[in-house]
Design brief:
With 363 residues, the chain is α+β, with helices and mostly antiparallel strands. It contains 9 helices and 15 strands. Helices cover 25% and strands 29% of the residues.
Length: 363
Amino acid sequence: MADHYATLGVGRDASTEEIKRAYRKLARELHPDARPGDVAAEDRFKEVSRAYEVLSDPHKRQRYDTFGDERAGAANFSDFGGISDLFNTFFGGDFGGAAPRRGPARGADILAEVELTLEEAAEGAEREVDVTTLVECPDCNGSGAAPGTFPVSCSECGGTGEVREVRRTMLGNMITATTCARCRGAGQEIVDRCKNCSGNGRVQVTDTLEVQIPPGVDDGAQLRVTGRGEAGFRGGRAGDLYVAIRIAPHEVFQRAGADLACEVPVPMTVAALGGTVDIPTLEGPEPVEIEPGTQAGEVIRLRGRGMPRLQRRGRGELVALLRVVTPTDLTEEQEDLLRRFASLRNEETSTKSMFDRIKEAFQ
């Protein structure tokens, strides 16, 4: 049975966005349109699509993490380490054994957003992000108890952080455990509450964090800063900060992954006779020779002049689409020269000059 995480090349703690990026990358490489006739690539593409179908859906992913691939049918007891682990999976407790203490609740993750220009995304940037979050109360050091006092064992769960229920079944006594509602899994309760945080152990602050954004980051990406989310409840582990990246539209370039594209106007005479045109790049204009007889729609590719590849070496390519420009502001002498040129090529043109048509318009 295939490991969907290994198929996509991500860890089991990968975020939804990381799974989506991994799938898109593999799908572009393995799609049948990209590799016509490659049976191995087609089979691999089906595996990648199946893995993404499961892991991109929170419910299917949870079921897969618990039971394995849904297509495999009923799970074997050995997959759960025995009958005891099977009951623990279904009912959250041990089958006749002691349940582990859950401990203080982890802090929540928080989300911030920053906007970059395309040039900043190419070079990497440092941003200050203002976040409003919960931090450990300085008066009670996160315990929730008033200074000089201490938490005591929870009277509901006896300090275990869980409330257990024993039920008799045909297989024997079965113990189920749930997080204690009184202490929220901390195993302790507060007799004399801290006035600064009202016994919560956390206070709300607005903080400014510096975030390093790597070169090559794309629009919609999320950067995770571990441990900079909300502080955990009464000593629990802190959550994470996720920074969503937005790339502002660029007036010249369009982006597709690590590649850039733009349009380059080419004078009609240069396209016909050959010459030099300036191709815009992130580092400035780059002169490029074009051949005589260049047609509109032809493409020039500059390798290594696109965006840096995120967490990889090298850069993408810059694709310049040539657009031949027909002049609209000819002088009478220039128009006469063009008519003579058309006559030499036996090409029919309008018998009236531009100036004649202008005169008629005002009559």
